[in-house]
């Protein structure tokens, strides 16, 4: 499949014929400027499809694209996009773009919980996107951010409330 070639993983996806990557292949990819440039182009292409722009290649900072409204309608209508986003997030981690993971997850948490523009992506953002973030510390920050903006807060089940209250 198209997405498997652009965003390969060390695990089986929906296409069981596709062979998962080995650790050696990932290391070889990460050392190749050509492969990493292509990977970044693919990431930007997919972001564009979802109505998102990569503002800063150093940090991974994102913003809504001009066409965000129509693209978000597509995201809300077709839940298969959530699987693709999960795959992209996992691949960002494999390829050493952990900061990009954080920005993409925070983008979706903001759009689902704060702006409420992507109601049909909210469960995936909380159940899957959050837990692709490799850095335990950054993941905790994102869970805390989600808890702060989740309504009603008493129904938040993605982290222990006592720890969330004491966080920082």
| Number of helices, counting only DSSP H or I runs of 4 residues or more | 9
Integer count of domains: 1
What's the order of the H and E elements? HHHEEHHHHHH
Which runs of at least 5 residues are low in confidence (pLDDT < 50)? none
Task: Provide mean pLDDT, rounded.
Answer: 91
Distance between the termini: 43 Å
Structural shape: globular
Q: Give the C-alpha Rg.
A: 16 Å
Strand sequence of the main sheet, in spatial order? 1-2
- Beta-strand percentage range: under 5%
Helix fraction, binned, reads 55-70%
> Can you count the beta strands?
2
Protein name: OGFR factor
InterPro entries: OGF_rcpt, OGFr
Family: Belongs to the opioid growth factor receptor family.
GO molecular function, one term: opioid growth factor receptor activity
Lay out the secondary structure.
Elements: H1 2-6, H2 23-31, H3 33-50, E1 52-54, E2 62-64, H4 68-77, H5 80-94, H6 98-114, H7 122-129, H8 136-149, H9 161-166
Antiparallel strand pairs: 1-2
Kindly describe this structure:
Belongs to the opioid growth factor receptor family. InterPro entries: OGF_rcpt, OGFr. The protein contains 9 helices and 2 strands, in the order H-H-H-E-E-H-H-H-H-H-H. With 168 residues, it is mainly alpha-helical. The protein has one domain. The chain has a two-stranded antiparallel ribbon. Strand 1 and strand 2 form a beta hairpin. The mean pLDDT is 91.
Q: Which tags fit this structure?
A:
mainly alpha; two-stranded antiparallel sheet; 4% strand; 168 residues
Give a nutshell description of this structure.
The protein has one domain (2-166).
